[in-house]
Specification:
Elements: H1 5-16, H2 42-51, H3 54-58, H4 77-94, H5 99-108, H6 117-127, H7 134-145, H8 156-163, H9 174-198, H10 208-214, H11 218-233, H12 243-261, H13 267-286, H14 293-302, H15 304-314, H16 317-328
Helix pairs in contact: 2-5, 4-5, 4-9, 4-11, 5-8, 5-9, 6-13, 7-8, 8-9, 9-11, 9-12, 10-12, 13-15, 14-15
Length: 336
């Protein structure tokens, strides 16, 4: 007799998860129905599809905050994704929500991020007539661009969580809310850590009133935020922090924007990254035949801007730089 492990796991979910959790057996389904797996639930299957995707592997070489850092310990878009996953899973497990769903959403939430982080996002937002948002591009990645244009065929709940991890639209599941909260918790804390490592910030300069609430160390702050979400949300149909911790977290985030994200220390780097993407965008708008065949097909179906945007958004930092160098740096200059 062959055991159906998936059915056993689905029964386990019904027994142990809270009434607000999203059960794997009650998923809204996929765009294209497929036979169920005998081992994995629908959300476990989505997690695996994301991990094995090309766009997930590319996150290793995409910027989080620091562009081409010389140290080994700075976050990339991939390590950020893993930290978001860890935080979201911890909260989901503590709240008796569906940890597999939270993990799948977290692993997929930034698949559409551009090279050069939010610098690249801002550039494409200016270049695209319809604008550009990385959450929308992440959804497009799993629905349209991955798997040779067939997409990953993920469940409704995972796609919704990827779309709503940022922006105005709210998640339809509490697991999606866990990821939305985890994303902010993760980047506030690890971006402070990286900025201190880079000498951009000094720990002694962090706002004292925030530290009094959240803690003096990276570990204390992230632990305070997670525990506060769990204690505030336990048994309730929402995922949020208490007003006190929310205020301290928001003030710390504002401090980061003022002293790290929008500060002048990386203005020259931002200008270079913006220039690289703009030049590549205009080049391929003129010569779409130079793009890979899959993007030429998108151009024929959805327009040149859409195709060029997809091509650039899929690039890693180093691929964009190498491509720009190959095209625009004359070979006539020999290395000495």
């Amino acid at each position: 007799m062959i055991l159906n492990i998936r059915e056993q796991w689905e029964e386990s979910e019904r027994e142990r998860l809270c009434s607000h959790a999203m059960l794997s057996s009650e998923t809204g389904g996929r765009s294209k129905e497929i036979p169920p797996c005998t081992v994995r639930t629908a959300f476990q299957r989505d997690r695996d599809r994301i991990i094995h995707s090309k766009s997930f592997r590319r996150l290793k070489y995409k910027t989080q905050v620091f562009l081409s850092p010389r140290g080994d310990h700075y976050r990339t878009r991939l390590t950020h994704t893993l930290e978001v996953s860890q935080v979201a899973r911890t909260m989901a497990r503590a709240l008796r929500l569906n940890e597999d769903l939270a993990e799948a959403i977290a692993l997929g939430h930034d698949l559409g991020h551009t090279p050069f982080g939010h610098i690249g996002e801002a550039t494409l937002d200016q270049l695209m007539p319809t604008g550009f948002r990385h959450n929308l591009q992440s959804l497009r990645m799993v629905e349209r661009l991955e798997n040779d244009g067939r997409g990953l065929n993920l469940t409704m709940e995972v796609r919704d969580g990827i779309l709503t991890h940022s922006g105005d639209q709210e998640p339809m599941t509490l697991e999606g809310w866990c990821v939305r909260r985890a994303d902010r918790i993760a980047y506030i804390n690890h971006d402070i850590d990286d900025a201190i490592r880079a000498g951009i910030l000094q720990e002694s300069k962090l706002p004292v009133n925030c530290l009094q609430v959240l803690g003096n160390t990276h570990g204390q702050r992230i632990n305070t935020m997670i525990l506060d979400v769990v204690n505030t949300s336990m048994g309730r149909p929402f995922i949020r922090m208490s007003p006190k911790v929310t205020q301290a977290s928001d003030e710390l985030r504002t401090f980061l924007f003022d002293h790290v994200y929008h500060d002048g220390w990386r203005a020259k780097e931002e200008q270079r990254c913006d220039y690289v993407l703009r030049e590549l965008f205009h080049l391929y708008m003129r010569h779409q035949e130079q793009m890979p065949a899959e993007y030429q097909e998108i151009a024929a179906l959805e327009g040149k801007e859409r195709a060029v945007c997809d091509f650039l958004a899929c690039m890693t930092d180093r691929y964009a730089i190498d491509l720009f160098t190959q095209i625009y740096v004359p070979n006539a200059f020999p290395k000495r």
